[in-house]
């Protein structure tokens, strides 16, 4: 997925995040789109690497900058004590209206990710996204303890205890996703 369709999905993700009360800073957008792509399989096509605060896409950063320049995303301050937040800009509806089928096609996935991740702070998002990264890189059936130790090795500032909690949360998210997919397939 590329171009304006991809932008429509990014904007839909932001709307869902804001609807669930997310801070919606760039880190929040980065992590939600990572989960959207890597966990639920929405083919946004962003390349992610493991970076300072977990999986990060320089492609997405560039896309958000371009979207700001095009009036599709705007930056605003919710509180002077924290970094800026992002929200769909004045021209966002125009792009979303061009691709109603695409937006509708991925609405359940964006809602699922937003519901799970919007209440999280930046530290929690880093741990969860890195836990997903580690989980995807390990052989199927790798124990939570093994994945937590690897997460801790990659991110030494994350304690093994916090890493284990994040791995278990990711396992729970995966389980809920499978349950929802099964429920959707049987209806």
Overview in brief:
This protein has 187 residues and is mostly helical. The protein has nine helices and four strands, in the order ααββαββαααααα. A two-stranded antiparallel sheet has the order 1-2. The chain has a two-stranded antiparallel ribbon with strand order 3-4.
Protein model, in words:
The chain is mainly alpha-helical and 187 residues long. The chain folds into 2 domains: 1-120, Orthogonal Bundle (Arc Repressor Mutant, subunit A), CATH 1.10.10; 121-187. The chain contains 9 helices and 4 strands. The strands form 2 sheets. A two-stranded antiparallel ribbon has the order 1-2. A two-stranded antiparallel sheet has the order 3-4. A hairpin with an 8-residue loop joins strand 3 (73-76) and strand 4 (85-88). Helix 2 crosses helix 6 (107-117), helix 7 crosses helix 9 (160-186) and helix 8 packs across helix 9. The longest helix has 27 residues, at 160-186. The radius of gyration is 16 Å and the shape is globular.
């Amino acid at each position: 997925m590329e171009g304006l369709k991809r932008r429509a999905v990014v904007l839909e993700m932001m709307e869902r995040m804001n609807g669930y009360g997310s801070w919606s800073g760039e880190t929040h957008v980065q992590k939600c789109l990572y989960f959207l792509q890597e966990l639920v399989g929405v083919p946004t096509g962003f390349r992610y690497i493991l970076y300072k605060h977990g999986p990060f896409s320089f492609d997405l950063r560039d896309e958000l900058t371009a979207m700001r320049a095009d009036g599709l995303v705007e930056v605003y301050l919710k509180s002077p004590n924290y970094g800026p937040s992002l929200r769909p800009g004045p021209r966002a509806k125009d792009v979303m209206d061009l691709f109603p089928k695409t937006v509708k096609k991925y609405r359940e996935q964006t809602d699922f990710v937003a519901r799970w991740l919007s209440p999280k702070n930046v530290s929690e998002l880093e741990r969860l996204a890195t836990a997903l990264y580690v989980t995807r890189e390990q052989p199927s059936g790798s124990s939570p303890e093994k994945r937590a130790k690897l997460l801790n090795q990659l991110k030494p500032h994350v304690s093994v205890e916090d890493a284990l909690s994040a791995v278990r949360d990711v396992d729970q998210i995966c389980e809920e996703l499978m349950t929802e997919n099964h429920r959707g397939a049987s209806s």
